[in-house]
Amino acid sequence: MKLNLPDKINLYDELKKQAKKNQNKVIIEDLNGALSYNDLLLNINVLSRKIKQITRGEERIGLYLPNIVGQVVVLFSLFKNGQVPCVLNFSMGTQSVLDCIETASLKTVITSRDFVKVADLSSVIEEMEKKVTIVYVEDLKNSIAAKHKIIGLLETKIKIPRKSNKEEIILFTSGTESKPKGVVLSHLNLYANVKQALSVIDINENDKIFNSLPLFHSFGLTVCVILPLISNIKTFLYPSPLHYKEIPKMIRKDGSTITVATNTFLDNFAKYATREDFKSLKYVISGAETLKNNVYEKYQKEFGIDILQGYGATETAPIISLNTPNFSKFGSVGKLIPLMEAKIDKVEGIESGGNLIVKGPNVMKGYIINGKGFVPSNEWYNTGDIANIDENGYITILSRLKRFSKIAGEMVSLNKVEDLAIECYGRTSFYSVSIPDKKKGERIILFTTIDNISEKELKKFIKSKKISSLYIPNKIIFIKDVPLLGSGKPNYRELERMASE
Predict the structure, then answer these.
(1) Computed from CA positions of residues 249, 252, 254, 258, in that sequence, does the dihedral angle turn out positive or negative?
(2) What share of the chain has pLDDT > 90, as a percent?
(3) What gap in Å lies between CA 46 and CA 380, rounded to an integer?
(4) 8 Å CB contact between 19 and 40
(5) DSSP string computed for 130-174
(6) Which residues contact 264 (CB under 8 A, 6 or more apart)?
(7) Helix (H, G, I), strand (E, B) or coil at 28
(8) Between the CA of residue 239 and those of 155, 336, 352, what are the distances in Å?
(9) Are 394 and 332 in contact (CB under 8 A)?
(10) Can you name the residues that pair with 235 across neighbouring β-strands?
């Protein structure tokens, strides 16, 4: 498909275009209230000047804020200023946050007193203050002078020349490295991904997006903030995806037509939702982790909803592929979105599928590596995922390349171990990791939130399937709750630590 993309874009300018055409439309809302396009633009224009003044025009500014309208105002204020927002993951541990600050060479971080108090993050802030200047949004608002308001009001009415230094945003990904990497995305990367998504799925100005994913999650940022604001679609920001009881009620109250979440979150929402709660939903999109069959079937049966599974990475802004109402295959992550290309590189020791490598206008500018600085990306991005692409173009993710264990010289998929357990017991909530073993190189530990699981039953099942005994876990361990990352994915690193202990 042919999409016309500009050579350069500033997302503030794109928002301003929509605001000019739809001044009085309520475009964004959170638990504290709603703003029209005109009110949102006015807030941005007023705050941007104060931010630039107090940060002395620094190129990169850290954001340590929750999923609220205030964060979006700060984000677009920085876009307007030509400054680079560096969105910090508040679910990370203190040291990881400090590593992000060091990696991006930040001097200033903007946060909120109310957020720090409610989330009990004062100890993190104390450590951050040893490295950077902390600026509170409450203080910014209180220090806004009459001149800021007058100029801000003028800027909503007339076009004032704006010099833009940088059209970038930085998100952070930890991977398996000891220190987080900064993912440098251009405004054009995000804009392209929005246009790519809108070209394959029918979303219009009457839709309403409900978002509980934090903005340090690229799906939450691009699909639930950038896309609606530059496309005249209302978005509702909810502060946490962990409020499983409240979210279905809020979707019903808002009349939302679109929501996005991970398999884990969708599974938990369904435990407390009624059919009436989800009656208004047109699309439910799942990403970040594999959509389980029982969750897919539950939404079909109880809510009459076909969940659309997508796939992406922070480095691709994030969408790579997506199932759509017209082109959908359960078990796959859909087809490549327009303007993307993909190839499969064979991996030694892995018989089925290969390493998925992609390119397109949404692929990042590069990484900021701790101690090295900016490292430009190649034309092709290595996803690190083992995948198959069938004759119709549907992509199936088989495993992470790093989600393989080498046992007795053979590559064993940890994802397949989980799938075998799900098939054996007829229930989900299984999480496998590998730890070092003196005899075989590595051994597999399987965690589950289901009590009284029989290890013998799984062993017998795997043998009956005539599958290698290397897929039999060394031990099954019961845990009450699965540790999660802020993105909603299982925290396998924490599970590895628990297994080692």
Answers:
(1) positive
(2) 58
(3) 40
(4) yes
(5) TTSEEEEHHHHHHT--HHHHHHHHHHHHS------S--EEEEEE-
(6) 289, 482, 484, 488, 489, 490
(7) strand
(8) 30, 31, 41
(9) yes
(10) 28, 209
Does residue 175 surpass a pLDDT of 50? no
What amino acid occupies position 256? S
User: What string of DSSP letters covers 357-410?
Assistant: EEESTTS-SEEEETTTEEEEPPSSEEEEEEEEE-TT--EEEEEEGGGEEEETTE
What pLDDT score was predicted for residue 331? Answer: 86
* Beta-carbon contacts of residue 391 (< 8 Å; ≥ 6 apart): none
Q: What is the DSSP letter of 291?
A: P
8 A C-beta contact, residue 107 and residue 132:
yes
CA distance to 14, 249, 321, 337, per residue, from 85 (Å): 17, 32, 26, 27
For residue 200, give both structure tokens: 């394959």
Q: Name all contacts of 278-282 with Cβ < 8 Å and 24+ positions apart.
A: 278/248, 278/251, 278/252, 278/303, 278/305, 279/252, 280/208, 280/251, 280/252, 280/255, 280/256, 281/251, 281/256, 281/257, 281/305, 282/207, 282/257, 282/258
Kindly provide the residue ranges of all beta strands, DSSP E only, lying in 269-365, ordered along the sequence: 283-286, 308-312, 319-322, 335-336, 341-345, 354-359
Q: Which of 358, 369, 378 is nearest to 313 (CA)?
A: 358
How distant is the alpha carbon of residue 316 from its chain centre? Answer: 11
Confidence of residue 101 (pLDDT cuts 50, 70, 90): very high
Local confidence band at 176 (pLDDT 50, 70, 90 cut-offs): very low
Beta bridge partners of residue 286, listed in sequence order:
261, 309
What does the pLDDT read at residue 177? 44
Distance CA 47, CA 41 (A): 10
Instruction: Say whether pLDDT at 163 is over 70.
Output: no
Residue 420 contacts residue 465 (beta carbons within 8 Å): yes
pLDDT digits (tens, 9 = 90+) for 375-429: 999 899 989 888 999 999 999 988 766 666 767 656 677 878 888 888 888 877 8
For strands 381-389 and 354-359, give the pairing. antiparallel
Cβ neighbour number for residue 54 with a 10 Å cutoff = 15
DSSP 3-state assignment of 285? strand
Q: How large is the greatest C-alpha to C-alpha distance in the chain, in angstroms?
A: 77
- Give the CA distances from residue 399 to residues 191, 260, 387, 418, 495, in Å, rounded to whole numbers and listed in that order: 29, 22, 7, 11, 17
